[in-house]
């Protein structure tokens, strides 16, 4: 087999496959439908088999097409890494790393960890974004993120994965609240109370919303704020109750009239892990950050106030 696919061929095929349409794929590649059809046909001739099944509704991939799409995405990802790294070198920056993480990792672990790494690597840029763990896995798999930090029993396939830490979600109530003396509470039993939560876009809000929906209930906080500290201040004032990482809640309870109550739900105890699709294929700066973050974690931060999320 004598394959001579160029980068444009791979991009075109990815566009067509993702759109499930030769016409829309050709439009995205900025070439005519006839030219796109010819290129796809030449690719099929090169491998000696069909890549696409053409139907009246569009196109569907064959097994060979699925395999080609997988490799095309990997090549395009590496080319994007190359483009970013070369662009960054031109600006005096020696690396650009995309890190997607859940709320707890961003607020409890990463400030100190990233501060240490960036002090040692002043020419590296880190693009840090907050997502749900399932979204992080998809982004790492698709090349949207170099490194992911997630919680829970999310399936990560054959990713390179290392332990990152652990945390527990707890219920926070005013000290005089009727739940304050409880040994543990199921999340569903707290939903009869008014809740204080993080903003709609936060990963922890969407996580709790989904858990409530799975239990056939709604989760609509009475008020939503921008940080764990603000949640606890609202709870102290009697606005409602809230669910927070235990490390944040216990730290803040030293200065506020609030009480933490363990959640009885199995999902409340969460292992954190750092993942990459393939550590060896990461750009040098991303690989260095992955190794740095994978070092044994210290206890979560103990400063008196939570950073905003």
Q: How would you explain this protein's 3D organization?
A:
By secondary structure, the chain is α/β, with parallel strands linked by helices. It is 44% helix and 21% strand. It contains 11 helices and 11 strands. Strands 3, 4, 5, 6, 9, 10 and 11 form a 7-stranded mixed sheet that branches. Strand 3 (95-101), helix 5 (103-120) and strand 4 (124-130) form a beta-alpha-beta unit. Helix 1 (7-19) packs across helix 2. The protein is elongated.
Structure at a glance:
Helices cover 44% and strands 21% of the residues. The chain contains eleven helices and eleven strands. Helix 1 crosses helix 2 (22-29), helix 1 packs across helix 4 (63-90) and helix 2 crosses helix 3 (33-47).
Describe the sheet with the most strands. 7 strands, mixed
The percent of residues in helical segments reads: 40-55%
Secondary-structure element order, as H and E? HHHEEHEHEHEEHEHEHEHEEH
CA gyration radius, whole angstroms: 24 Å
Number of helices: 11
Strand elements, count: 11
Q: Approximately what portion of the residues adopt beta-strand conformation? A: 15-25%
Counting helices, strands and paired strands, the structural category is alpha/beta
